[in-house]
Amino acid sequence: MLLSLRNDHKEHLSLLFSHSPQVIVDFCKLAIDFLQNGPNFKLYGSASQKLEVQPEDVQNCVYGLVNLLLESCKHKLNDVDFRDSILTIGFSQEQQAILSKFYLSKRKDVTDILSKLSVDEPHYHDLNWRFEVQVASRSLLQQVTPLITMDLVLTEPTDGIETKSGTKHVLLQTDPCNLVHMTETLENALIESRSRHSRRIQRAFNN
Amino acid sequence: MNISEELKTRLKFISNCNITEDVYKKLLENTFATLAGKSETHSMSTLYNSKPDLLKQAHAILLQAGAEFARNNMNGDEVKAVLTEINFNQNRTKLFVDLYETNKDDVQVQLGNIGMHPPHIVDADWKIDYIVKASNLDQSEGPIFRISLVSSKYDECDNERKLERINFSCNSQELQDLVYKLKDAVRHCQRLTTE
Amino acid sequence: MEEVDNIIIDSLRNLSCNIDEDVQSLKQFTTEIVYSSMVFCLQAINPDIHFVHSLPQSMSLRLKNATTIAEHIKELGYRGDMGYQTILYCNEIEIRRVLMFLVERLPREVHKSTVSTELGYVPKLVKKIDESVRLNLEKPWVPSEFLKFGSRDCKKMVLKQDFGYGHNLQSEIIQIPDLQKQDCVESLKQYWVHYLPEVTKQCLKQNVVPSLLYRDSEFTDLAFSTKVENVETNSLVNNIEISNANLVKHNGTTVPELSIFEIEINKIRCAIEENKHKYEELQISYNNLDKQLAQITDERHKKEAALKESLTKIKTRSKTLAVLQNKENLIKLKNLVDNGNKRLVELANHWNDIQSPLLQEYQELQEQLKTRKSKIRDEEQKLQNLKDKKISLKKELSEKEKLEQQLATEYEKLNKNTNRSAYTRRILEIIANIKKQSEEIQKILIDTKIVQKDINSLNGQLDRSFTLSDELIFRDAKRDAMARSAYKLLATLHKDCGEVVQAVTTVGLVERESRNLQEQIDAELCKEVTSKLERLNNDIIEMKRENALLINKLTERTC
After folding, report:
1. How far apart are CA C434 and CA C432, in angstroms?
2. Domain extent at residue C506
3. A123 has which bridge partners?
4. Nearest residue on chain C to A134, judged by CA atoms?
5. Residue B109: which H helix or E strand, with range?
6. Which residues of B touch A108 (CB under 8 A)?
7. Sequence-separated (6 or more) residues with CB below 8 Å from residue A141
8. CB distance A114–B121 less than 8 Å?
9. Where are chain B's structural domains?
10. Contacts for B32 with CB less than 8 Å, ≥ 6 apart
11. Considering CB atoms only, which of A124, A193, A206 is closest to B128?
12. In chain C, positions 119-138, which contact chain A (CB-CB < 8 Å)?
């Protein structure tokens, strides 16, 4: 699959076409710095002085590189596809080699972050349980009520790109009968996900 | 038997008070209907006659006695012993004990419902999702399970039972972990009964 | 085999299986008995299995039931050959094997009854927990909507499976008329009669019972609660003021470019603070002065009162002085005083005379009262003791009755198992028999060994004497014609004898073989193949007839 970029995106990247591999490497470093620490205008300013261009152009070029990385990860390009895409945009063979290296080194991190972004509801984290029997309460002095009290720990997504999600504790209880039912139901889900039908669907999506 | 002297003196009032057996019977039936969470069978105002204050007091005492006996999990014989001790006549004792024994379980259910509890899981639903395409990702690895635990909880504001869903998602390994932990709990319960 | 049969039949009778008194061994078992005894055994082992106790009439039904029974027996782990034919066309040995297997699997009831005799809070609780968890696990899941108030009635106990109705314990203040109280006002009574609502309507429906049982919401000292509140609010207000002040200070230091207004405001604030301070000081001094004033006025009042008193005293004194100045008056007064004194003494004497007996009487009566009271108290104590005793005895009685019942049921159960001693006796007998038999076998073995030895020694002797005579006659035969013929005869004699011996051994072999064959024939005869085949044939014909009937019916239906 080939990546098709918007025209302004291509324009922003075109700044790099005429430059030496060393410059490309520097720009890749700038992009990595952007991913880790956010924009750094001072660096862009000094770079623009060296290259004798407008600071905005440098800034746009860095953004363009990051966007290129994100788009490639989003579509899960393999290295051949990535190479072809880069070459079609207008980079030279030499430049492409550097960019491919850049892509391969950062691909996993970016994909991880992207997949986490898509989770938009509480996510299972942990479960603790204890078995207890209620033998008396203030209004019923003699009773036998077996209970399973559970602490369900969920991670909740917070807004923003930072992946520091908060954990939430949900305190629940149930009786043995419902516990068995619940366990069976959830186990069925697990078994169903391994059935031939589900596997076929998954395979169909992957191809 | 942990019946307080206060309640005994109150009950003595009923043993002495001047109401007809028929009114006593209806009053008792109302009392146990209330304690068992049912609606009253007789309208109270028809029972009043000329002594509303007396009946109001008797009703309150019977309610208190019935609740206290059930709270202590007393059986019919024990109740009978207490009532004869404070001079209830045979007919009234028998009526009380009979109604008490038939309604005891229901009354205890009501008493057992008093108290604080976390939401009680009564059911679980699930669905398996595959992400075909997302805004920021083309495809994902494996299925995503959307789990919904149905829990029931008493709503203190609306004064009724309400179902509350606890929704969360997990992937295959996490669900496996969850199921494993739950099975552990189930196994623990089963082992309890076999040993 | 008789012993085994007895054991089997005994245990079958214990299962209330109808076996006639004259049935003594499995040989007498008919298909009917075999079928019903297997059904009884299976039901005793697994109460969930349901079968008709007698063989049905229809052939196909018979076949069907027999196959399912056979499957159940196989499920229990029976290894041998098992099918409908074992039940319907039974042979003694197989039936014995199957029934032995089933009798071994019968549940023993002795264990359960021993556990239930434990009494005490903790063991009871543990038992109850055990029971409720088991019930909870055994009962199929039911949606919570079908539960009545979140609990499920399982005959033995009520299981709580949903706490959705579990509201908080909350008690409200409710009013109950109290006609026992002595001093109630008429208007209060009127209020009770006409206006006071029913207790059930005085608070929320779910709070009625807690409010009646507990008095959580009633405070005995109302002032106490309000005081606590005041202190709390005061401290809260103080805290807020302090934090406000902090905030102001904070603002002043951190933000250097504070506008003029703010500075002014601060100044004003400072002035206000100062004024406040001054005001407070003034207030304090005012309060002090006020107190002083109060003290002074107080003192004045006291002094005025004292003045008044002394004035009246002076007045009376001056009056008496005026009277006393006359001497006659003085004497009269003295006489009067003397007379009065005398009369007083007289009266006192008189009073003493009257008082002392009365006092004595009073004391006596008091003492009597005391003794009587103490007696009454003793009696009351005794009565109370008796009452307590009565209650405890009653309790004990009921417990004992329960125990008695339990023991009676246990005893009944045990009664059924009295054949244990019979078993052991039989087993001992069997063992003794076996011992005897083995001894006999041992004896016979020794006998045969001795015979074998004798035979061997005789054989040797024979051989030796033969070779000796052979040699002697052979030596003579060279010289004597008679001896030659004797030698020939000896040779033939030897040969013939050898043949005879061989013939005897072969006869023995054949006899053994024929005995084996006879046994096999007997075994085959036991199986009664011919009669069984006949029965099978009859059953097949019966079935065919049934099938034909059914087909006829079917065709009629379709027509």
Report:
1. 5
2. 420-527
3. A155, B169
4. C129
5. helix B90-112
6. none
7. B71, B72, B73
8. no
9. 5-112, 120-194
10. B66, B99, B100, B102, B103, B107
11. A193
12. 125, 128-129, 132-133, 136-137
pTM (2 d.p.): 0.52
Q: Which of C70, C104, C100, C102 is nearest to C85 (CA)?
A: C70
Nearest to B57 among C151, C169, C177 (CB): C177
Annotate C349-396 with DSSP letters as a single string.
HHHHHHHHHHHHHHHHHHHHHHHHHHHHHHHHHHHHHHHHHHHHHHHH
Number of domains in chain C: 4
Judged by CB atoms closer than 8 Å, whether chains meet at C144 and B122 is answered as yes
Q: State the pLDDT at residue C526.
A: 77
Tell me which residue in B81, B153, B154 faces C391 most closely, judged by beta carbons: B81
Residue C170 in contact with partner chain A when CB distance is under 8 A: no
| Residue A170 with chain B: CB contacts under 8 Å | 166
Chain A positions touching B185 (Cβ under 8 A) are: 129, 131, 148, 179, 183
Two tokens, residue B195: 């040993």
Q: Which residues pair with B84 in a beta bridge?
A: none
DSSP helix/strand/coil, C486 = helix
C33 plus C103 within the same structural domain: yes
Q: Are residues C353 and C425 in the same domain?
A: no
> Do residue C101 and residue C132 come from a single domain?
no
For A52, counting Cβ atoms within 10 Å of its Cβ (0-12 exposed, 13-18 middle, 19+ buried), the class is: exposed
Q: Is the dihedral of CA C529, C535, C536, C538 positive or negative?
A: positive
Q: Which of C125, C136, C213 sits opposite A177 (nearest CB)?
A: C136
* Closest to B169 measured CA to CA, from C354, C109, A118, C135: A118
Determine how many CB atoms are found less than 10 A away from the CB of residue A50.
11
CB contacts of B11 in chain C (<8 Å) are: none
Cβ separation A146–C125 shorter than 8 A: no
Domain boundary (C74, C92, C109) is at: C109
User: What one-letter code names the amino acid at B15?
Assistant: S
* CA nearest to B107 within chain C: C209
Q: Is residue C219 part of a domain?
A: no
User: What are the pLDDT tens digits along chain C (559 aa)?
Assistant: 677 787 788 778 777 777 777 777 777 788 888 888 888 888 888 777 777 777 777 778 888 888 888 888 888 878 777 888 777 777 777 888 888 888 887 776 544 444 445 567 888 888 888 888 888 888 888 888 888 888 888 777 888 888 888 888 888 888 888 777 766 777 888 888 888 888 888 888 888 888 888 877 766 544 444 444 455 555 666 666 666 666 555 554 444 555 788 888 888 999 999 999 999 999 999 999 999 999 999 999 999 999 999 999 999 998 888 877 777 888 888 899 999 999 999 999 999 999 999 999 999 999 999 999 999 999 999 999 999 999 899 989 999 999 999 888 888 877 665 667 777 888 899 999 999 999 999 999 999 999 999 999 998 998 888 888 888 888 887 777 788 888 888 888 888 988 998 999 999 999 999 999 999 999 888 777 788 888 889 888 988 998 999 999 999 988 7
**H and E: helices and strands count for chain A:** 8, 3
Task: Let me know: does C3 contact C430? Beta carbons within 8 Å.
Answer: yes
Instruction: Please indicate if any CB of chain C lies within 8 Å of the CB of B64.
Output: yes
Question: What's at B131, amino acid-wise?
Answer: I
* Of the partner residues C130, C189, C193, the one whose CB lies closest to the CB of residue B193: C130
Give yes or no for a contact between A85 and A11, defined as CB atoms under 8 angstroms apart: no
Q: Which residues of A touch C (CB under 8 A)?
A: 133, 135, 138-139, 144-146, 173, 175-178, 180-181
Q: Is any Cβ of chain A less than 8 angstroms from the Cβ of C206?
A: no
Amino acid type, C404: E
Q: C residues 413-452 near B, CB within 8 Å?
A: none
